[in-house]
Amino acid sequence: MDTDSFDETYVLLLLADSNLPTGSFVASAGFESYGTHGFLSRSSASSGAQGRAAVAGTVAFIQDSLHTYARSALPFVSDAHNVVDAFKDLKGKPEMGHDATVNRLLELDELYETMTLNHVAKRASKAQGVALLTLYAKGFACPSGLGDEDHLSKSLAVLIDRLKLMVRGEETHGHLPVCWGVLTSALGISLLRAQHLFLFLHARSLLSSAVRLNTIGPYSSQQLLLHSVKPLVEAQVSQNKDIRTGIFVDIHHSDVGDRPATTWPLGEILAVRHDLQHSRIFNS
């Protein structure tokens, strides 16, 4: 394994750590509402049948959620990643790249805000997005005391800190897909790896929610993650890895049918009803 490949793998391991303070622990992406509305249980069935129904219902939810999330959010990850990659190609010269890069990221963020259909999903996306920017500033940026930080690293830190301050000042929204693209590009993760990990973490978060809701057990969760979820994630990455938002494409050469879209209306309805539950443990 060459040094660059090892470095990328090491950063991927860090990003896959479930203890990262990204806010995903309090988000279920509509799964709690899905269970509350009776899509996981069969009251007349035996306990064994109920358990099997819960597992099947969990997998069905993950499949539908991944499908709509990959189609609606992954293009924003891809475009944000490419924007920061282009900034890095300028060798981080502030006078050449900062303003243009920030403006492009703000365009993406505003489009995602417009395309996200319910307030619950927007709330969770914003909370996790700004957490990623904070994570880079406090957890991944090179410490000043090491003395080996190059000009590009410093410029990336300035760029991300500027974006974070704009989110805090409510000048932009800081949605999760955009911030994930920014973070992974800044850390040197390839676009394909960033896309794959983005969907994997979404699926893992759903299984974590299922465990905490006592829908499935921890062993069943790991089993599903390896055997049932893996092909679902790979299929969605394969189908959606080349889709872009269309913001930065010449309008005369754009395929309007190959753009971000929501593909699961039921999921949107259940998500927007999250706050109407009598009791809840997640914020989405």
Low-confidence stretches: none
Encode the helix/strand succession as letters.
HHHHHHHHHH
The overall average pLDDT, rounded, is: 88
Radius of gyration: 20 Å
**Gross morphology:** globular
Strand content bin: under 5%
Largest beta-sheet details: none
Helix-strand makeup class:
mainly alpha
Number of alpha- plus pi-helical segments? 10
Distance between the termini: 41 Å
> Which percent range fits the helix content?
55-70%
Task: Map the helices and strands.
Elements: H1 3-15, H2 31-36, H3 47-89, H4 94-115, H5 119-140, H6 151-168, H7 176-186, H8 191-212, H9 218-240, H10 265-272
Helix pairs in contact: 3-4, 3-7, 3-8, 3-9, 4-6, 5-6, 5-7, 8-9
What would the keywords be for this entry?
mainly alpha, 284 residues
What does this structure look like?
This protein has 284 residues and is an all-alpha fold. Helix content is 66%, strand content 0%. Helix 5 packs antiparallel against helix 6. The longest helix is centred in the N-terminal third of the chain and has 43 residues. The chain is globular, with a radius of gyration of 20 Å. The termini are far apart.
